[in-house]
Amino acid sequence: MGKYLLRLYITGRTPQGNRAIANLQRICQTELAGRYEMEVIDVIEDPQAAEDARIIATPTLIKALPPPLRRIIGDLSNKDKVLVGLDLSGPDDLVGDHHD
Amino acid sequence: MTEPGKLPSVTKLATGIDGFDHIGLGGIPAGRTTLVAGTAGSAKTIFAAQFLAEGIRQFDQSGVFVTFEESGADIRANVGSLGWDVAAWEAAGKWTFVDAAPQPGDEVVVSGAFDLGALVVRVEAAVRRVGATRVAIDSLGAVFSRFENEVIVRAELFRLASALKAMGVTSVMTAERTHEYGEISRHGVEEFVTDNVLILRNVLEGEKRRRTMEVLKFRGTVHQKGEYPFTIMPDQGIVVIPLSAIELDQRSSYTRITSGNVELDAMCGGGFFRDSVILVSGATGCGKTLTSTEFIAGGVAQGERSLLMAFEESRDQLSRNASGWGRDFDRYEREGLLRVVAVYPEAAGLEDHLIRIKREIESFKPNRVAVDSLSALERVSSIKGFREFVISLTSFIKHQEIAGLFTATTSSLMGGESVTETHISTITDAIILLRYVEMFGEMKRGLTVLKMRGSAHDKDIRAFTIDGAGMHIGAPFRNVTGILAGHPRHVPPAEIERLGQLFTNEGPLGV
């Protein structure tokens, strides 16, 4: 499995943005320890980055690598959906403790 | 807050869209957002794009186009057919896209709460980058279908509208409707996003599509009420026809011009008024085309220019007819005093014909306009649409301070009135009736000036003949009644004498 390149776009240091950062860090440490690179981009500081990536909603997590490219929108509070979005959910994940 | 007795201070931004600023009484509210709602195919995207295009073309105001549905490339190509070179404007820093259309092939997973903060940031950055005065957002429905959470989307669109207001830009947002007459927009956005609502309609009416535009509300300011027809011209985009918004402010002239026939001039009290509209009604073959031919020739003889809009006969047919009456259309055209435009009525909708006629008038600058016949145009429209067309055309002609002569065909050979006549007689300044009169097994032709606004005129119904030199008006039908009703009846001389004595010159008090 190749390295994961993850970009998280947020709009300023809002509680929502901070929550997304914390959730992503927690998921990466447990699921992708040692094989991920994470970048946080604040679109207020860099609107052009949002333009280039065509971001409209924040927080948006883009899985740039490995392909295919995926977008996950929201504060990443639903871990199962994040795992689906990152193509990390295998058949064994179908049984688990869901909270939603 | 507005103080009592003081007018609210909502100013308008002229859109530059032809005719729209009349119904908006100056444009759309400046510094605010106007919702443009319409069903599929009602020209919302064109309106949004034209709002920016006219800003650049007419007012040197830059614009930002936010697209949620089509890509920037698609919009560039689509509006290219209207003659707008968006790519050139982009290169000049006058137009910029915020492309928020979904990316093909990328799946979106939603996990938890989100906002549209990045969109607001991108729009703000784009506005600053080109120094935009105008922003167009197309369309809100696409945002709702993209994100399941309607509550968040509504709140975020409100935030976007507030951000636009804070930047002082004037914006339009488009939204879908499911029905032409019903709730304003599908997702109920209008209630919280914007105080101003414009509705575009594309209604099927008697097998014909009719586009209309209605300003539903402009909060804190005035606008024209009701629906106004509009059309989309290939090289111009939307053209609104501001019917009742037309003001009756044209000056009235007492200058007389010749009808091209000295006898008819005499019947009209010395000719037509220079800025009047004359309706000539009659059955087929009765002399209507001749009347318009003489009207044109009369102008040419004075060195005036005439425009003939022909909807029934080709240019060559008209020229041949005219030469049969001793009038040389070819020579008039060579001398630049005549322009004949022959159009098949079914070739376009009535709105398009109207704009075509206006353009011909504006480019040729005639002193006289003849339309032969107006009835032919009735076929391509509903009655309401036709009436609006005539009002608009009449008003336009009067504003140019030129004379217009329209012909109308009656359905029955004898007497009767044409549908055209019924609907437009109150709009025209003068009405001339041409009628067949059956007398002792012979068809004669009769002419009368039914109405001549602002002038005395001959009240007789006079016989006329047509020969190689044109129309010759003769004596009145003294011994016939019922001509206009279509039932001419010969009256013996004795009875005429008796009738004459019934009405003496004595007034009620005796003279």
TrEMBL record, chain A:
Alphabetical list of Gene3D superfamilies matching this protein: Glutaredoxin
Protein name: Circadian clock protein KaiB
Biological processes per GO annotation: rhythmic process
Naturally occurring in which organism (per UniProt): Candidatus Thiodictyon syntrophicum
Lineage: superkingdom: Bacteria
Pfam families named among the record's database cross-references: KaiB
Entry-linked CDD domains: KaiB_like
NCBIfam families for this protein: PRK09301.1
SMART domains: KaiB (SM01248)
Domain KaiB span(s) in chain numbering: 7-88
From TrEMBL, chain B:
Membrane-spanning ranges: none
One Pfam short name: ATPase
Coiled coil start-end: none
Gene3D superfamilies hit by this protein: P-loop containing nucleotide triphosphate hydrolases (3.40.50.300)
Catalytic activity, EC: 2.7.11.1
Keyword Signal: no
InterPro entries in UniProt: Circadian_clock_KaiC-rel (IPR051347), Circadian_KaiC_bact (IPR013503), KaiC (IPR030665), KaiC-like_dom (IPR014774), KaiC_C (IPR047222), KaiC_dom (IPR010624), P-loop_NTPase (IPR027417)
Domain spans labelled KaiC: 11-254, 255-487
UniProt entry keywords in alphabetical sequence: Hydrolase, Kinase, Phosphoprotein, Repeat, Transferase
NAD found in the keyword field: no
A Gene Ontology BP annotation from the UniProt entry: regulation of DNA-templated transcription
A Gene Ontology molecular function term of the record: DNA binding
Main enzyme class: transferase
PANTHER family: CIRCADIAN CLOCK OSCILLATOR PROTEIN KAIC 1 (PTHR42926:SF1), PTHR42926
UniProt protein name: non-specific serine/threonine protein kinase
